[in-house]
Amino acid sequence: MSQTSDTTGIDYAPHGSHRHTARGTRLLAGLATAVAAACLLPMVAVAIAALTGGTDTVRHLLATVLPGYAGATLVLVVLVALGTFAIGVGAAWLVTMTRFPGVRLLEIALVLPLAFPAYVLAYAYTHLLDHPGIVQSTLRDITGWGPRDYWFPEIRSLGGAAVMLVLVFYPYVYLLARAAFLQQSSGAFLAARTLGNSAWTAFWRVSLPMARPAIAGGVLLAVMETIADFGTVAYFGVQTFATGIYTSWFTMADRAAAAQLALCLLGFALMLAVAERSTRGAAQYHHAGKRHMKMPPAQLKGVQAALAFALCATPVLLGFVLPTVILFLMGLGSEQDLLSRRYTGFIRNSVTLAGTAAVVTLTAAIAVGFYQRLRPGRRSATTAYMARLGYAVPGGVIAVGLLVPFAAFDNALDAWMRDTFDISTGLLVTGSIWLLVAAYMVRFLAAALGAYEGGQSTVHVHMDAAARSLGETPLGTLRRIHLPILTPSLLTALLIVFVDVMKELPATLIMRPFNYDTLAIQAYRLASDERLEGAAVPSLVIMAVGLLPVILICRQVGRRD
Predict the structure, then answer these.
(1) Phi-psi bin for 336: left (phi > 0), alpha (psi -120 to 50), beta?
(2) pLDDT (0 to 100) of residue 109
(3) What local confidence, expressed as pLDDT, does residue 350 receive?
(4) Known CDD domains for this protein (predicted)?
(5) DSSP line for 107-162
(6) Nearest CA-CA partner of 505 in 439, 435, 410, 551
(7) Which of 40, 236, 328, 526 could be cross-linked to 534 through a Cys-Cys bond (beta carbons 3.0 to 4.6 Å apart)?
(8) In the prediction, which pLDDT does 115 show?
(9) What is the CA 288 to chain-centroid distance, rounded?
């Protein structure tokens, strides 16, 4: 007797397998719920710690640093939003809707700055543009000017930090805007042209509004990465919420202040996350007409072609080519040896953390994603939504949110063991790498879940029904059918999380066990000590690893049709 399965998540299996099916489903539901709870824990812990920290700290923050933190963060967000919008949308329109010499190469190369963490870019440009740097030293040698005889833009400033972040984050807007422009039909644009509108007016009134949801999503992603950034603003001395959390936690040893600053940043981040999701699902545009006609690209020649090439090549030059050359030359002049025992330790620690976090995060993503497919409904949808919240929470907030409850647990356990057995357990949880791995899982689960769900959508529900009619349990279906088919998506998710962990700085800086340093920590420490040439070596390794997912993205971008 054959069995069937419907698409509502109700399983039909032979009688003998009902017990195994129920057990597997409960196990999957429990694991998915535990993952969602782990993602929610840092936010709840931050809120509780902040609200129970007393009003004295709040009043002190309001009277001293909080207005400055809020103002600097807001200005930085506005500058990055405007900069990523201008570069990302402009470059996407030029490479999609026009043709000029070098456009196919630039179409791919515009993604390359994603390989750089913003703080690495900051180290390179400080070496180039700071007062003792190459540019100003050459200028003084040529003109004979003294330090106070001329004005030069200060790279270590709020504006300098904004430029670094724009150069690294504009590809978010570029990729989404390019995809939106490619999907647009030419009907509405050509209709606007026949009504007497210029190409620029038609773009502004027709093409840009149609791509607005995608562009807004890209800008909001860039903004969320901006408020989460710590390395760039800390190195440039810009006082934002991210630097305030670190200063309160370590320099001032004020846990209440750190929690309250983290709560402010968390509220702003969640507001942006809600805006991003509502924008993604808000405006929807449909093609006029029965057939989708691609926009015919305009052929540019002469001055127009040269100008288009220069506009698209400039962000690639400033965001990838020039920093790579600078870091390479800095690395040659340093005394850092990647093959030394010390550096192999940094590399081993980085790879261990990144590899472990990637496996744990992918496992959590599979549990949440497959549970949502197996039991579609309000509970699984809520679980998936909670699991995705971490992408909007800065690493520093997650670090504080996990350290507060687990440090209390460690202290309570140690006190009980001392009183009962006269044994000290020490920092059992907070002194290990596992809490740091949990922070990475919370922070990057959304990326892994997105890659997994993208692949899972290609597996038809009829395959699940066929497997269950043959007596396969849900976990057996996952192991024997889904995972082999989804191998490319799983590898992509592993790679994305691996590289993100390699580049992550604030959570690693706050939560790492004593004397457990990574390449990112080494680069930050050397740069903080003004040993920029030494910082170039670990920075280059981080950039080289970051190129791996960017190459995958470039391959997809290259498949234009």
Answers:
(1) beta
(2) 92
(3) 92
(4) TM_PBP2 (cd06261)
(5) HHHTTGGGGS-HHHHHHHHHHHHSTTSHHHHHHHHHH---TTSS----SSSHHHHH
(6) 439
(7) 526
(8) 87
(9) 36
Please tell me the distance from the alpha carbon of residue 174 to that of residue 179, in angstroms, as a whole number: 8
Which pLDDT does position 558 carry in this prediction?
Answer: 64
Fold observed for domain 53-287+298-332: MetI-like fold (1.10.3720)
Mean of all residue pLDDT scores within the chain = 82
The count of C-alpha atoms lying within 13 angstroms of the C-alpha of 11, restricted to the half-sphere facing its C-beta, is 26
As a whole number of angstroms, the distance between CA 331 and CA 336 comes to: 8
Choose among 433, 435, 432, 451: nearest CA to 362: 451
**According to the model, what pLDDT value does residue 197 have?**
61
d(CA 555, CA 350): 27
Residue 15: its pLDDT value, please?
44
Positions in the chain short of pLDDT 70: 1-21, 24, 54-55, 57-58, 184-207, 252, 276-296, 558-561
Taking Cα atoms as reference points, which of 160, 279, 173, 157 lies closest to residue 225? 173
The segment(s) of the chain belonging to CATH 1.10.3720.10 are 12-46+334-528, 53-287+298-332
Give the CATH number of domain 12-46+334-528; options: 3.40.250.10, 3.30.2350.10, 1.10.3720.10, 1.20.810.10. 1.10.3720.10
Name residue, tokens 């405007």. Answer: 82
Percent of the chain with pLDDT over 90: 25
d(CA 158, CA 185): 41
Distances (CA, A) of 328 to 98, 530, 532: 35, 17, 12
- Count of beta carbons in the 10 Å neighbourhood of residue 351: 16
378, two tokens:
């309000």
